Amino acid sequence: MDGIFSQLGHLFVQSFPTVIFVFLLLIILSKIFFAPLIRVLKQREDMTSGALVRAKEQTAAAAAKTREYDAEFQLARQEVYRQREADRQATLKERDVLLQKAREQAETYIQTAQEELKAEVESTKAELVAASRSMAGEIADVVLGKGPSANRPGGAQA
Predict the structure, then answer these.
(1) Residues 134, 155, 151, CA angle at the centre, nearest 5°?
(2) Where are the alpha helices (DSSP H) in the chain?
(3) What is the pTM of this model?
(4) Residue 55 burial by CB count (10 A; 0-12/13-18/19+): exposed, middle or buried?
(5) Three-state SS at 133
(6) What is the dihedral of CA 33, 35, 39, 42, to 10 degrees?
(7) What is the pLDDT of residues 31-80, one digit of tens each?
(8) How far lies 50's CA from each of 37, 63, 79, in Å?
(9) Which distant-in-sequence residues (6+ apart) come within 8 Å of 147 by Cβ?
(10) Residue 158: what pLDDT?
């Protein structure tokens, strides 16, 4: 067994420079190669996750702006509807006023026309009464023989 331990000790002494060389190589590689590689990968991950976070923030901001725009658009639409309704009401009131004026004018015109017609009827009645009296007098004169046929040349009576 001593032989095995002495061989192992001899192997360990011979492999010691190789082990040191491997550890030095590991340290050098980690400083020169692995550290920058890990740093670049970490930066890349930070940039990627940062870009994702910024994209999510921008998406949320865009969604908020869209909601705000929709709300303002809805308010503007409601204002337009209110304005239309106010214009319609004003137009209806104006129409009602114009209709009332037209009715009043028509009533005035009708009353004037009726008064003129009554005056014309009264005038015509007066003329008819005068004409009928005149005709009645002439008829009476003709019937009684005092009329114009009695004064005709030849003295013929009808």
Answers:
(1) 30
(2) 2-29, 35-144
(3) 0.42
(4) exposed
(5) helix
(6) 100
(7) 988 888 999 999 988 888 888 888 999 999 999 999 999 999 999 999 99
(8) 19, 20, 43
(9) 138, 141
(10) 43
d(CA 20, CA 28): 12
Structure tokens belonging to residue 119: 């005056």
What band does 19 get if pLDDT is binned at 50, 70 and 90? confident
Q: What span, in angstroms and rounded, lies between the C-alpha atoms of 141 and 128?
A: 19
CA distance 84 to 90: 10
Residues with Cβ < 8 Å from 158, sequence gap 6 or more? 142, 149
pLDDT digits (tens, 9 = 90+) for 90-144: 999 999 999 999 999 999 999 999 999 999 999 999 999 999 999 888 888 888 8
3-state secondary structure of 153: coil
Q: For residues 158 and 150, what is the distance between their CA atoms, to the nearest angstrom? A: 9
